[in-house]
Amino acid sequence: MILQYQTDLKVADKAALRDEADEIWPVFRIDVERANLKSAVISANEIPQGFIIKRGNAYNFVYEQDPTGVWHCLGDRPSGK
Asked: Which residues, 6+ apart, have CB-to-CB distance to 14 below 8 Å?
């Protein structure tokens, strides 16, 4: 399941984007759990820029539920377990 939203922030400001994702996650998590999913994505999308062709960047936060039922954003854990 993916939730996309438009942000006023720049993708380069990952700390501020993460703060936004942390605010959104508790509400989105309810839908993810109702769907019996073990992972989900929150996608922050910049406001598209340009005159004729508009382009914008995006950054994804991937949340995953571990076997004990605890949710983690994948960037929070070291890779390689």
From this structure: 59
The arrangement of strands across the sheet holding 58-65 comes to 2-7, 39-46, 58-65, 71-73
**Selection from 72, 74, 5, 1 nearest residue 43 by Cα:** 5
CA angle 36, 37, 38 (to 5 degrees): 125
Give pTM, 2 decimals.
Answer: 0.83
CA distance 42 to 64: 11
Instruction: Specify whether the CB–CB gap between 81 and 41 falls below 8 A.
Output: no
pLDDT beneath 50: ranges in the chain: 78-81
